[in-house]
Records
---
Amino acid sequence: MASEATPRINAHYLEQFTNQTVRIVGKVLALHGETATLDASGSITIHLNRESHLTVNNAAEIIGKVQQDLSVKVLQATDFGGSMDYAAADAVVDATHRYKEIFYEAGGE
């Protein structure tokens, strides 16, 4: 069985990926118990799991499922530390949506 594609998105694409697994890079703005707020070209509420170890003001990559309320339920979270070029991360998101055929396999091929 092939692994599920995890499109790179930011806050602007949440509505287009409801109930799908995605990959998001952003800055951790706040931690609130079992949730976090991530800035990925807009604010996103992240529902953490027990393995999530994030630090406020650090960059993080979230692999998770977009919920109906446009929050994201974490499947995997990686803390990237304090230094990140967020403009470059947004450029990658833009490129993957503009040139989907390069980044994602077409179904059945």
Note: The radius of gyration is 14 Å.
---
Amino acid sequence: MSPSSFDTAIHAIDKAHAHDPRKVQIEGKDEPYELYYSKKMSDYLEQCDPQARETLRLAIRAQHLRRWEVPRDSYPMNKTGYHLWRTYLKKRQAELATQICLDSGYSEEDAHRVGALIKKENLKQDAETQTLEDVACLVFLDDQFEEFEKGHDEAKIINILKKTWGKMSQRGHELALEISMSERARDLVSKALAG
């Protein structure tokens, strides 16, 4: 794996993210949401595992690859629909990322490893898959949680926080507790951890 393969793959992933029609304001400029999200994922990976292998770095960057093309409301708006949507997305995003890796010069083995990480295969048994899960949970808590919690009742939010916490490693827990949150968000996290 040469640095040029990595750079080529990252460029292709970021180019795909740049097509996301949803925008966020970052320092006064519009940025495609998935490009912003993927960079935040990469930033948290640096905190979790600064020595991460290229395959994990690529999986982290591609975790939501072209996700906006399959909106949540394209599946039933219930728990079953949510799980079907998430399962389909993991498979699709893994296939897209695997192909980008192959096109960028990675071996079949490495390209498929990126796909397996995106699908979160062997979570809890595979340290790299666990790191990806930690990073995804950290980005949720840091970037999405405060807005998300406004749309749900407290009991549901506490349950979601308990599930999120249960997916994370000890290192993920440590980093999560360092995230700056509003008083309300911090209170909900405290309630989830207490019960």
Note: DSSP finds nine helices and two strands in the chain.
---
Amino acid sequence: MPARAHSNHERNGPAWLALLFLIFLTLSQVSLGLKLDLDDPDSIKAAAGQAAYDMIKYYDGNQTGRIPGNLPDPYYWWECGAMFGSLLDYFYYTGDDQYNELVTEGLLFQVGPSNDYMTPNQTKTTGNDDQGFWGMAVMSAAEQKFPDPPANKPQWLALAQAVFNTQALRWDTQFCGGGLRWQVFTFNTGYDYKNTISNGVFFNLAARLAKYTGNQTYADWAEKAWDWTADVGLMSPEYHFFDGAHTTLNCNDTNRQQWTYNAGVYMLGAANMYNFTKGSDKWRSRLDNIFNATAMFYSPTAANVMVEVACEPYGTCNTDNFSFKAYLARWMAATTKMAPYTSEMIMQKIRASAAAAALQCSGGASGTLCGIKWSDGAKYDGTTGVGQQMSALEIIQSLLVSRVSAPVTQDTGGTSKGDPSAGSGGTFDPTIPQDTIHQRDRVGAGLLTALVLVSGFGSAWWMIS
């Protein structure tokens, strides 16, 4: 689908329109959708609890004979990691621990033989973005002080570091001057594509590891990933993030589709870099520009209500796309903790979108299943699924962000144990200056990188997965 141009001023709307829309939504919720009082924590927790309950009904990994950490068809493996991220947030915001055992079981079951979320049964679909969503989930577990696994199991921080390390080794300078490919393995369609979300996840994880550990080398990787995204043209001078480009054309064929989660993943990464650099003007400017550019993702008729503009207005969203607003909501809320000055402008968006999402959760026999067209209010759009529930859950529970403590670091109460060389077979530690690494380690890392860089020439038009 060709990219559509949206001007920011068309998507902002006047303040009075936002106020009227909020009043309308609040009055309408007497009989339709989830009951939600935007200023009552108990009401917010109840609405989030219903959305979480309706989401988890799609999960069968905790049933006899099923695989923990997997969703049934038509969902890809990555979305289960993303769903666990929402349930981690649910515990963080509400204190309701009823899903904690399920989340821990799934996160640990899928770590793979090297404890890096490279699971052999997912090789046909494993992208750097897929692996990265699991990495970001365990990063959140460390930051939010989610209960640590037993001592004989992989730990949250070490798992996040393992994902980062495996991806740092895949940084590909042979084509497009750097960046990560979409797919990990040469035999998968999409190996010849460098997509923004894979590189955004890597940037996000590097920035958060820098903040959590205090190690400058992670921050250096974050700077490198940011610079490459801008230099290769996946981010415009106006801070719009495009979908990706092909290595076969040296990334000169940018797909200009724009998705909410691409903006969100860079927003939270930039917020962590702003915090890590103690409020540097450079990262504040970048963060502000990302936020301002997200104006295109809000309805022109329902002020401050989030819309997946690439597909939602046309009824063309696929299973994956239905979940993308969840991640923008998640990362916007988290941004307010890393850059508190953003709170007022972000919460204006979250409040309007949460009120609209609660109204849209009016489907099914229960009258609580969530659609995706929040801007339609109580006119249920007829769609159901994990993505729709996750999106509603994240935007609603984000209303509680001001009531929870900031993410911890290893110096401010974090308890998760790390391993800087995790996931690399001991051959790569990004926190050690490269001139101190032994030659045999360089060879081991080089061999792994060379294997990943073998180019597959059978290309096909791809669909986001």
Note: Strands lie at 193-195, 244-246.
---
Amino acid sequence: MSSSSMRSFEYLESLPGTVFNRLYKQPSTALAIFRRMLPQLAKSFVMAMLYMPRPLPVADLDTWVRPGSRREQNTAIDLLERLQILKRTAEPNKPRSYVLTNPFAASLRQALTGGGNHRSFGVPSRTHAEGQVTKAQLDDFARRQWEGVLGYMVGSTGVGLNDEGAKLSLAVKHLLKYGRLVEVRGRSVDITQDGFAFVLQEVNAQVWTILILYLENAEELGMDRVDVLSFLFMLGSLELGQGYSKANLTDTQLQMLLDLGDFGIIYQNTPDSDSYYPTRLATTLTSDAAALRSATAGFDTALRPSNNDDKGFVVVETNYRIYAYTSSPLQIAILSLFTRLSTRYPNMVSGKMTRESVRRAISMGITGDQIIDFLYTHAHPQMRKNANFLPPTVVDQIRLWQIEGERMKSTVGFLFKDFLSAAEYEGPCQHAGDIGVLKWKNDAKRMFFVTRHEHVAAYLKSQKEKRREGG
């Protein structure tokens, strides 16, 4: 699962069942979640059960998977249950079974076969030909607005960003502060550790991070979060360059058009126009096809698929000097967060990483591993000809500069202990590892530590029920 899928999945998992019930009434939502958030094995289970007239016994499902793939099977089943797509049934004198939940199953069938008057995939505008916006114009608008957001986050470092960039609204700045991507101290805006991690993500993951923050803030704005979620999933199914009518949108979704326009996700000729256009940032929401690594290189790939300029631009020498072959003000601003820049040419900047410049970045919350990841991701093709293209002395020194002020890292979670036997301990411990929540274990003392306890507890409960049935 990609990082953007994981972020949206974690938000969905926290929602109550009544919200899922309303969400899954929209075929576009059911299809988007099926396409984006499910691994291939989970998709296979859903498609195999979609038209089954009766529940599928657990023993029958087990025969579909090879014995050596039980871990993948458990992960897929756990994911489907957490998204409330699959549930277990236990009727008297009948074997335990699985069944797809409704309305998810009904909506997915409708999305795959068509029909109905739900209009959850948008209504094309009949008047969009008048003053029609081209794909190139939509791409330029999305690029300008999104780079304006990133420029605001890193542009306070003294490197001048393009004056032609987007002017951010107060709502956008509030959302970035609310998400702790930036810290505002008077007139100073500093990027945080989370903000730098955000900048390093592919563009699709960045967009989903912003949208999750928007969702978390929706109720404070008096918005219905089901309307918000349904609209976001619908955007991923729309066609780039096609205008869509506003006539069937709710009041919440009409307000969203204005807010999403600030981020370059939606374009409108004027706020009062009868139609809106999704940009490429919107139409790729439910697709992992574009794995974009940065704002500049990423947009060159996503917004101009025929362009082959998505190459590294950073050269790092063993003496800590850096040469960056770029004219992007945004990339230069990111470099200046941890580099003392000394020279700037039309197509290149140079500087040096020093203890002071790296420690300054660390004091802002940026980690040494994040700096190394940035240099690794954007390494120049000439450097990539070597096996270890980042000089080991530079990598080690960045980490040493970080640990000068750090000796311990804490992780919030839950400790499971006091198991009566090794067999009782090994099952839930292995299950925690399978679903990716296990952080530490001690087999000798029969103890393990997890970041989330709900599904481990559910596993223990299901094992207890199995023993009761077998006894």
Note: The radius of gyration is 25 Å.
